[in-house]
Design goal:
The complex is a heterodimer of chains A (282) and B (274). Chain A contains 7 helices and 10 strands. Chain A has 282 residues and is of the alpha/beta class. Chain A has a single domain, classed as P-loop containing nucleotide triphosphate hydrolases (Rossmann fold). Chain B has 2 domains: 44 residues, no CATH class; 226 residues, MetI-like (MetI-like fold). Chain B is globular. Classes of the chains: A alpha/beta (282), B mainly alpha (274). At the A-B interface, strand 6 and helix 2 of A face helix 8, helix 9 and helix 12 of B.
Chain lengths: 282, 274
């Protein structure tokens, strides 16, 4: 991780091609995603925004291999993850999910959590894994709490440790599903800066779902606005703010214009979603 | 550290409330039975009579803390509980874990479990006597059976209670099914397992005593019935209280074992002030 400092990303390109997902609970078809296509470059931070329950998570679940897709294909670096012949992608450590509510194992200390991936994949010995986990936690400012259980640290620390747990596996893609949703604004901004710092160092491709437009623009290279269910890409905003970014960006004119554009696009869909009044789908 | 904890405990209302509660209970017991000698209560042995007999080196009714026969009855019951609880846990926990983990296995076994579970343990007595020879095995069988159901069901619920995201996270990180079982299913179900074990040891005592009352020539349950038959009511009450104490003690042991195995949970709860 530290060795590919500032190098250009060469892995983690996701290609979503004409993906459709139809849920079939109780015999009633619900189309969650409709013919959605999206190209995400290697090392891109792609932010997905859209109304609640529009099918953003469905897309993430398809990439991660939690749910099958009905039509279309998804490729990762030119290799098919899922498609007509194989609707459900294999789950693997090349695409790691950071969950909305946090999914560090509460029964393992932070360091054991972080060392877990390499240990079960047997890419490192137990001692090596613990050693590396210790280093990476220290790098993330969590050295002092490495021996604590997730229940003993703040949600911000836990979330940071969860990202470290993902990064130790050197994944191609990080899939984040509103990881900072439940946090207060101050903690959130600290989390954003630490995620940007991680990104600048690793250039890992990031697929990030959020409701928070400012978060989306602050973090992202592109912001993909989805339509209300069934989800399609509505507009894609390019965020041409230079990296590395810090919180001063938030008060720049360029930033405010982008937020305004994004709001216009999302608001329209949010109104539609609200009027449809449908129950949120997972 | 122990001293510090002890001092700290004395500064909270807990120990005083406990003593007050015991005193209140003993006081009522004394007044009802020995003090006022209320109707229906006046045939019972009072607390003074029971405690004097319990601590009497030369017991009037032949049994006290100083007679070997008292310990024999208690130890026989404890030994049976130990065997029954060990079997029930050894079978029930894995059974519950597999039922929770594998849908197929659950589909096979759940209906059987749910049919057998509501049958009261006393209804099993004749069958147990028919199935097993001697006096010891049927009694242990009955105690095992009762706690087995509780343990299995709680373990199963424990696995069900694990958030799907932990399974997903583990698989994302490259865990294979046996890793998921060892690192997610087992630790995730532990809180429910130990709640179940605490209930199950109580149920084991309950059914053991029931079984001892029906068949047996030793044990606290037998002692109680025997004392009743012989109109030695003091011994009956001593037997009951002894049951209460060893039952409490055994449940406490299970709780301590649970806290040892789930330090993560103890620490997180402690931070919440519990």
């Amino acid at each position: 991780m530290a060795d590919n400092n500032n190098t250009k990303a060469t892995k983690g390109a996701i290609s979503i091609r004409n993906v459709t997902k139809i849920y079939d609970p109780e015999g009633v078809n619900v189309m969650a995603v409709d013919d959605c296509s999206l190209e995400i470059g290697a090392g891109e931070v792609c932010m997905i925004v859209g109304p609640s329950g529009c099918g953003k998570t469905t897309l993430l679940n398809a990439i991660a291999g939690f749910h099958s897709i009905t039509k279309g294909e998804i490729y990762l670096d030119g290799e098919m993850l899922c498609g007509p012949s194989k609707p459900l992608a294999d789950q693997g450590a090349d695409r790691i999910v950071v969950f909305q509510h946090g999914a560090l194992f509460p029964w393992m200390t932070l360091i054991d959590n972080v060392a877990y991936g390499p240990k079960v994949q047997e890419t490192m010995t137990k001692a090596e894994a613990l050693d590396k986990a210790g280093h990476m936690l220290a790098e993330a400012g969590l050295g002092d709490v490495a021996g604590k259980y997730p229940g003993e640290v703040s949600s911000g620390m836990a979330r940071r440790a969860e990202i470290v747990r993902a990064l130790i596996n050197d994944p191609k893609v990080l899939l984040l599903d509103e990881p900072y949703r439940a946090m207060d604004a101050l903690t959130k901004s600290i989390m954003h800066e630490s995620l940007l710092e991680v990104y600048d160092r690793t250039k890992v491709t990031i697929f990030f779902i959020t409701h928070d437009l400012e978060e989306a623009i602050f973090l992202g290279d592109r912001v993909v606005v989805m339509t209300t269910r069934p989800a399609k890409t509505k507009t894609i905003l390019d965020v041409n703010i230079e990296r590395p970014r810090d919180y001063h960006v938030l008060s720049s004119n360029q930033f405010r214009v982008l937020v305004e554009d994004a709001k216009d696009a999302v608001h329209e869909e949010a109104v539609k979603a609200f009027e449809a009044g449908e129950r949120e789908l997972a | 550290m122990t001293l510090y904890r002890f001092k700290k405990a004395l500064s909270t209302p807990t120990p005083y409330l406990m003593f007050f509660g015991i005193a209140l209970w003993l006081g009522c017991y004394y007044l009802f039975v020995e003090g006022w000698q209320l109707p229906r209560f006046n045939k019972l042995p009072g607390p003074v009579e029971v405690i004097t007999e319990w601590l009497n080196p030369n017991p009037d009714w032949g049994m006290s803390l100083f007679t070997p026969i008292y310990y024999e009855h208690t130890l026989v019951s404890c030994r049976r509980i130990l065997i029954a609880f060990a079997i029930a846990t050894g079978v029930g926990v894995p059974l519950g874990l597999f039922m929770g983990w594998s849908k197929t296995f659950r589909d096979y076994s759940f209906p059987i479990l749910e049919t057998l579970r509501p049958i009261p343990i006393l209804a099993w007595v004749p069958l147990a006597i028919l199935m097993f020879s001697g006096l010891e095995t049927p009694v242990i069988y009955l105690a095992t059976l009762a706690s087995l159901f509780v343990t299995t069901l709680n373990t199963l619920l424990g696995v069900d209670s694990i958030d799907e995201e932990y399974f997903r996270a583990a698989r994302c990180l490259g865990a294979k099914p046996h890793h998921v079982f060892m690192h997610v299913v087992i630790p995730g179900a532990l809180p429910f397992i130990f709640t179940g074990l605490q209930i199950s040891i109580g149920v084991a005592w309950f059914s053991l005593v029931a079984a001892e009352m029906v068949s047996g020539e030793f044990g606290l349950g037998y002692l109680i019935v025997d004392a009743y038959m012989n109109v030695t009511y003091v011994i009956m009450v001593i037997g009951m209280l002894t049951l209460g104490f060893v039952g409490w003690f055994s449940a406490a042991l299970v709780r301590i074992a649970g806290n040892r195995m789930m330090e993560w949970r103890v620490r997180a709860l402690a931070l919440e002030g519990r």
